[in-house]
Each structure stands twice: as C-alpha cells, then as structure tokens.
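Shipment paperwork, digital attachment
Item: protein structure file
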Amino acid sequence: MQKKSLLWPLVFILIFFSVALFRHTHSLFNTFDTGLYLQLAVNYIINGSLASSVTGANNFLSIHFQPSFLLISPLLAIFPNPIMSAFIAIGSILIGVMIFHREAKTSNVWLAVITCIFVLHPSISGRIWYNFAPDIMAIPALIWLAFRLDNREPKPWIIWFLVLAWSGGCKEILWVVGAWVCLIRAWYVREERYMQLLLSVAQAAIFCFLYFFWMPGHSNGVNYFYQSFYFPNGFENYLDAFFILLSNLFSLRSIKTISLLIFATGFIPFIKFRISSLGAIPGMAVILLSHSGQIHHIGNHYLIPVLPFLLVAGIHNGDLATKFFARVRPTKWWLIIPAMLLTIFYNGIVDSLALGMMNSRTVHFREDARHFAQNYVSVDYPLLIDGGLQPHIPEVQTSIVLLNFTGNPHFLTAEEMNESFYVLTSTRLKNIENCSQVKIGSNLDVNLKYFQKLCLRVKSDAKELVHYDESGITGYFVQKRR
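Attachment content:
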C-alpha cells in the first residue's frame, strides 16, 4: 500500500464530509434520494416492509432492484439521518481508493492524481455531500472488475461470484455491466472463456428476468425508469423507437455530456485505448440514449458505472502521461482542476453553502419537524411534507412529498385529495391570497397545477395545528370533505 498517495484523496473526502455536515445542520438534504432511502431502511427493519409512501410503491424493489441496500439498512435504521448515509458512501469510496492502490502498478504521484480525480468527480463526491444512492456501494466491485479487463491474471471464481452478485444487487442495470465485463474477459482470456461466457449469459438472464418480468409483476404501476426518459412522446413502432434513440445519442445534450466527462477526467483515459475503457459502454449507453437532463447531469449517480472503467484506463496510461509531462514540464496536479471546478461550481456546492448561510431558519427544521411528527401526526392519515423536511422524520411511513422533490414523487389522487391528511411545510399556505397565481421558484421541481389545487384545499378546509416561529414551518390538519 502506497500510503503517501492516500493523503490527498482523504483530504478531499474530509472536505466533502464537512459540507455534508453543514447541509445536514441546515436541513439541505432532500427526499431525493437521501430521505427516500432513510424511510425505506427504517420501514424494512422496523416493520419488515418494502413499501415507500414517497414513491407510492408497495414494493420498492419493483422500482430499483437493490437487495444489497437491504444488507446495510440496519445502520440507517439505527442512525436514521443523512450523515450515516454519507458515512456509507465514504466507506465505499475509501474501499475503492484502496483497490486502486492495491491493483495499480504506477508511481505514487500518478496514483494520487487519478484517485483525486475519482474522489473529486461530481458523481462520486456528490454521494457524500449532496444525496445518497445505493449505486455508490458498487464502486469497489466496479473498480475490481475494471482492473480485471486490463489484467489477465486469474482470480478465484468465488471472488468473481461475490463481486458480481454484490454489484448487481446495488442496482439492476449493473447486472448488464457485469455481463458485459465477463463477455470482454471471455474474448481475450482464452483459459477462462467458457466460464466467463457462462457468467455473462447468467447475468444477462438475471437482468432480463428482473427488469421485464419480476419488477413489473411486483409493481403497482410505479416505475422510476419511465419510458419518457427515452421516448418523450412515445413511439409508433420499433423502427420509430430506433431513430428516436439515435437522435438522443447524437443530440447536443449527449455531446455536452461526453465533453464534460472528458474534461472532468483530464483526457487521460483517452490518450491510448485500454480494454478497461470498454467496460464503460453499458453505463454510457444508459445516459446517451436518454433525452432526460436528470440522467445526463454530471453530478447525478448515473455515471457511477462509467467512471471506474475510464479511470482504471487512466491509471494504465500513466507511463504515457508521465513521458508527456517530462517534456512540457508542468505538474501532473493540474489534472485534478477540471473535476474540482465542476464539483464546486457546476454541481452546486457554492449554492448550497450560500443558501445555508443566508437562511438561518433552516437550522431549526429538524427539531420542529420531529416535534410535529411526535405530537400531532397519526398513522391514520397521510402527511404531506416538504422534501427538505422529510429526511428528518424517516420513521413516518405515510409521508408524501409536497414540495422540493426532484424525481418521481407520488401525488394524491383526486379521491385522496378529498380525504383527511396532515400538511407540514415552510410555505404559509393560509396566507396565500390567490392559489391560482402561486408561482414556485424554478429551483423547485413541482407539479404546479397539483400544488395550486392543494393550496385551495388547505385554504378552505385546513385547521392550523401549529406554527413554529424559529423555523417558519407550519403544520395543518385538513378535514375530510363530506
């Protein structure tokens, strides 16, 4: 283990953890995805249920098949707050960094540069300070698999089985990544050909069974991988679908995504072709074939299946890069600057810190949200709540997100809107004069018409239960319409 080259990645991890602490104390963690998984962990461990009121799913595994998350859910159930999810992300990242150091055969400085790029990349660092996604737990497995593509040395089959099973259990699409890696390995390692082909076929079959049969069969109509992510207006036939995907692939959004990815990795993985870079193809296909800005965003978790393969290629391009730097004589450390700039400015760290410092009320959100849940909320009625408040009370299994939820929230149906429910929000709904003219800030992802209907319902039928002066949040009970 080359201990000196671990120092800088550790420094950056501590910085991101400090940002996570700041965001936690200022209630800047959101339902998507941190609060969602906190609620799921508590519900699974305490109640033995995989239901999610936030998404409306009766079985969350029908949305994302992530049994690996269930194995670490006791930690989140015992310590149900965003900081524990940050610790889980940090642990996964650190194990990944150690695998880099164990497997790579290169200089201390080059190892430090590549692992710093890895830690600094918005898709990785964001899982510490911005939001949690179980995909990050697959990072050690993906790095190990990436090294297997450039290294012909055999490994015990039991390790292959465990690594592939853990990775696939972190998200269903990672079964495809594992199948692709085994197929590549079968192609160029003759001694393992038949076993790797068997592993590849088995993983492809597992993905097809889960995605096309098991998940739809256990779904109550809720699905995160909406067809609209790829086909915004639907398609008439398979030929039409092909040309839509082709259009997405060569869109300006895809060109921007590729450009930012090359920029963030300092172009090092692309100096010379390495077999490990082929492992990034399934992950890139998920992104580039989509038209959704959410999937393309460089700070989102969709790049997690891509980065390990590209950065392992970067590790193996170290000798070429070192020769280049020996000629032009700048320091190698400038390569970490692009990833650092993207994390600081493009991924919103500055905005988050500024928001927390400008709004001192948010530091009281946790205390007041928990007080309302413990003293007013009954399990008999849903609780409509802001996305910034829900992570503080993950034990409430009737939460439905009202505002500030980027993702696919569950909304009350017309029938449910006429039933009784609680509301906890930082928006003083009773003081709004004209609900039809309500405008929610563009930084909040919300169904405006739905919110306006809810506003009318609250104004006409709500009883204000409590208003917390320090935090500015208000709790209501809305009576059932007769």
